[in-house]
Task: inverse folding
């Protein structure tokens, strides 16, 4: 039992991959949020331009 716990606690081989996955998920979330806000702003500007015609 102790050897299993030692192996689980000592294994760092996948740690970097998990960290990169978290960073990638955070960057993707920020990008989707930013693009959504930009899309709303562009839509509002285009509606103002169309109303001017």
Result:
């Amino acid at each position: 039992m102790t050897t299993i716990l030692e192996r689980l606690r000592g294994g760092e081989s996948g740690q970097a991959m998990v960290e990169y996955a978290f960073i990638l998920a955070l960057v993707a979330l920020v990008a989707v949020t930013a693009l959504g806000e930009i899309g709303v702003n562009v839509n509002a500007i285009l509606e103002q331009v169309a109303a001017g015609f």
Observations:
- The helical segments are 2-10, 15-52.
